[in-house]
């Protein structure tokens, strides 16, 4: 079962259970996927992972913003949504594995400037790690 099918099945389950937070989260993800499809972007597993990572990033930023503003009720809601989204994401690789892969990428790049290596790293890892983690480890390596 691919991710879209899983999202649709889970949406049915959440409807029956009347779990509105989970239902709205899954609907939002499916909506983002449909928007990309309408824009002519080919929807495959890699594109779905991009959507999920983007939605997770939005939730993380919202949690931080709401916590700074003292809105624990809204930050808790965003945290619940984040956990639901993370359930559909593949596990990220460990820091040790990430460091090893990044060292390989750095060695393969002729131009050792940060921007060039970062772009090559993101392409090589294909969503296996968050951009912030990649950036932080690359800064240590370079």
Comma- or semicolon-separated keywords:
globular, 142 residues, 77% helix, mainly alpha
Q: Can I get a quick summary?
A:
By secondary structure, the protein is mostly helical. The protein contains 7 helices and no strands. Helix content is 77%, strand content 0%.
What does this structure look like?
The protein has helices at residues 3-17, 20-38, 45-68, 72-86, 95-108, 114-125, 131-141. The protein is mainly α and 142 residues long. The longest helix is centred in the middle third of the chain and has 24 residues, at 45-68. The protein is built from 7 helices and no strands.
* Low-confidence residue ranges: none
Mean pLDDT: 89
Q: Spell out the helices and strands N to C.
A: HHHHHHH
The helix content is over 70%
Compute the gyration radius: what is it?
18 Å
- What is the chains' assembly state? single chain
CA-CA gap between termini = 41 Å
DSSP summary: helix tally:
7
Shape: globular
Task: Report on the biggest sheet.
Answer: none
Strand count: 0
Structural class: mainly alpha
Strand content: under 5%
């Amino acid at each position: 079962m691919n991710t879209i099918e899983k999202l649709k099945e889970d949406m049915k389950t959440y409807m029956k259970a009347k779990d509105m937070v989970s239902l709205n989260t899954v609907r939002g993800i499916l909506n983002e996927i449909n928007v990309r499809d309408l824009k002519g972007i080919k929807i495959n597993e890699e594109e779905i992972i991009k959507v999920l990572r983007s939605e997770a990033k939005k939730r993380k930023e919202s949690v931080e913003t709401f916590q700074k503003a003292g809105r624990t009720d809204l930050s808790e809601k965003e945290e619940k949504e984040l956990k639901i989204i993370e359930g559909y994401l593949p596990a990220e690789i460990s820091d040790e594995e990430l460091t090893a892969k990044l060292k390989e990428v750095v060695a393969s790049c002729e131009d050792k400037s940060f921007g060039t290596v970062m772009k090559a790293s993101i392409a090589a890892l294909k969503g296996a790690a968050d951009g912030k983690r990649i950036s932080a480890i690359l800064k240590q390596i370079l």
